[in-house]
Specification:
With 296 residues, the chain is an all-alpha fold. The protein has a domain of 197 residues. The chain has ten helices and two strands; from the N terminus they run βαααααααβααα. The longest helix is centred in the N-terminal third of the chain and has 30 residues. It starts with 29 loop residues before the first strand and ends in a 9-residue tail after the last helix. The structure holds protoporphyrin IX containing FE. The site of protoporphyrin IX containing FE has 19 residues, from helix 1, helix 2, helix 5 and helix 6.
Length: 296
């Protein structure tokens, strides 16, 4: 692997002037409670940007600059981190819906939860395509290299929010309707398509390192959070909604200026990629109202 080239960031590297939209600057960390903890009720909210609790007189903090690389690498890396942030937000919303619901004896409850979960899975599929839209070269030389440098077995299985969703889904799946089953299958197809394109030899770092999905530890989960700039702190529902919609605005602005147009050799995936804004705008709608609270 050659070292990433260094060059000055181009002056027109971004599509919007919104804070956090510069692919050469590190985005704000995503602040989230642990997946088994509910949103906090009020003043304990540790999100300094939360519209409900933030100090409006706080002066903005200049984000650190990432190491300089060429423009495609900067964009690929930015999408990898911001795309993962929003995927984590989609998982958190799934967690809210699957925890607060459903009364599985009530068909209306099951249909409603299935429909929202399917939309959230479609949004996750869109975010997989956004996060993984770089070239295989950028993936190998920048993204995979940085994950491998963090840990030789670095893996998506270390994502604690997804792990939590998987167990909630296992309980709900037997009653889920076809729309959700379809969204889950399609998500798998998309994930595999991205894997095949970005890692043609097909082996994840986890498998290359000879590690096993069953052996995930809390240290691995912490490493995933740290790598993807996720801080586990108390956050209220409004703070979460603001972080999610703010990042979605960045993703939608980025895609409007630079649509993802990879050929996956699969008509359904290519067609879905052709309108990533639709599932992402739906995610923004779902994120906007305060998520439902856990049942006592
Ligand atoms: C595009 C962004 C990506 C995201 C958000 C993501 C996320 C995840 C998550 C959450 C898991 C654990 C649960 C599951 O199996 O679905 C996982 C597992 C896995 N991912 Fe991804 N992934 C991405 C890209 C990739 C790429 C580029 C590859 C190429 C090798 C890949 C290969 C795998 C494999 C093989 C597993 C199974 C466990 C393992 O062997 O590590 N994923 N991914």
């Amino acid at each position: 692997m050659s070292a990433p080239a260094t060059e000055a960031p181009p002056s027109v590297a971004v599509t919007t002037g919104a804070p956090g939209s510069d692919p050469f600057a590190e985005p704000d960390p995503l602040r989230l409670p642990a997946p088994d903890a509910p949103f906090t009720e009020g003043e304990a909210c540790a999100d300094p940007t939360c519209s409900a609790h933030a100090d409006p007189t706080r002066s903005p903090v200049a984000p650190p600059r990432w190491p300089e690389v060429d423009r495609d690498s900067a964009i690929g890396w930015y999408r990898w981190i911001v795309g993962h942030h929003v995927a984590v937000c989609a998982w958190r919303l799934l967690r809210e819906h699957l925890t607060a619901a459903p009364d599985t004896r009530n068909p209306a409850d099951v249909v409603g939860t299935s429909a929202v979960a399917a939309e959230l899975y479609d949004a996750y599929s869109a975010l997989l395509l956004y996060s993984g839209s770089c070239s295989p070269e950028v993936y190998a030389e920048v993204i995979r290299a940085r994950m491998k440098a963090r840990h030789p077995a670095f893996s998506g299985t270390w994502a604690r929010d997804y792990e939590h969703v998987t167990s909630l889904l296992a309980a709900f799946r037997p009653v889920a309707d076809d729309r959700l089953r379809h969204a889950l299958r399609f998500n798998r197809v998309v994930h595999m398509g991205i894997g095949r394109r970005l890692v043609p030899e097909g082996r994840s770092l986890l498998r290359e390192a000879g590690a096993h999905v069953e052996d995930v530890t809390d240290a691995d989960r912490d490493r995933f959070d740290e790598f993807f700039l996720i801080d586990r702190v108390a956050v209220c529902a409004r703070g979460f909604a603001g972080q999610t919609t703010g990042r979605l605005d960045l993703v939608l602005a980025d895609l409007a200026g630079r649509p993802a147009d990879v050929d996956y050799g699969d008509d359904r995936v290519n067609a879905f990629q052709g309108d990533l804004a639709a599932p992402l705008e739906r995610l923004r709608d779902l994120a906007r109202p305060a998520p439902r609270r856990d049942r006592p």
